[in-house]
Amino acid sequence: MKLFFDFFPVALFYAAFQYARAHKELAAQKATEWFGFMVSGGVVGPTEAPTVLATIVVVLAIAAQIGWLLVRRQTVSKILWVSMAAAIIFGGATVWFHDPAFIKWKFSIVYWLMGSGFFISARFFRKNPIQALIGEGISLHEQAWHRLNLAWVLFFIGMGCLNLAIAYNFSENAWFNFKLFGSMGLTLLFALAQGLYLARFIKSGPKEESQA
């Protein structure tokens, strides 16, 4: 359920782009009418309207996520705050300059920050994020937890690079498709692979030290 919550802004990002792409003239008119004050020159054209509207939607969606968690008095993760800050900075640049390159870089930068955070936490603060998230009821050797954490670090780095490779070598529509279906699918497959690996270490009783 948390995975779908995490991908909620991306799903809205995709939906807003596809709708605006199918109604470019209407999208340009509404974007100029509603958000012209946020755009250099005050006018949004039909070509850039889908990306501009989708970018505004994703910023609002992340803000809604944070608001929902705060209202329910739940902890807002650091990465969600980072994602919000990156969305405002890079999304704002995309809207102002009518340039989708900024919002495309935003996703890669967030991936790289996540990977860096996982690495720095384990390497310099001796706190393994993966063990903290899923370690309850799972008995693994410390080296195995280290390898799992490193695997996520490499996954995030790879996803950031893949995001830019698709952004600069394929159409904008292909990139939007990747953002929803590709990124979610790859994340699910990677999590599933690790889940299969961890399944044999799940214990119903007290934890015992075991080798991986």
Strand and helix layout:
Blueprint (H helix, E strand, L loop, with lengths): L1 H5 L1 H15 L1 H12 L13 H23 L6 H20 L3 H24 L4 H6 L7 H28 L2 H28 L13
Helix pairs in contact: 2-3, 2-4, 2-9, 3-4, 4-5, 5-6, 6-8, 8-9
* Class from helix and strand fractions: mainly alpha
Strand elements, count: 0
Largest sheet: none
Q: How much of the polypeptide forms β-strand, as a percent range?
A: under 5%
Judging from the principal axes of the Cα atoms, what is the shape?
elongated
Count of DSSP-assigned helices: 9
What is the N-to-C order of secondary-structure elements (H for helix, E for strand)? HHHHHHHHH
Distance between the termini: 28 Å
Round the Cα radius of gyration to an integer and report it: 20 Å
Low-confidence stretches: 205-212
Mean pLDDT: 90
Q: What is the helical fraction, as a range of percent?
A: over 70%
Structure description:
The chain is elongated and about 60 Å long. The protein is 76% helix and 0% strand. Helix 2 (8-22) runs antiparallel to helix 4. The protein has helices spanning 2-6, 8-22, 24-35, 49-71, 78-97, 101-124, 129-134, 142-169, 172-199. The chain is mostly helical and 212 residues long. It contains nine helices and no strands. The two termini are 28 Å apart.
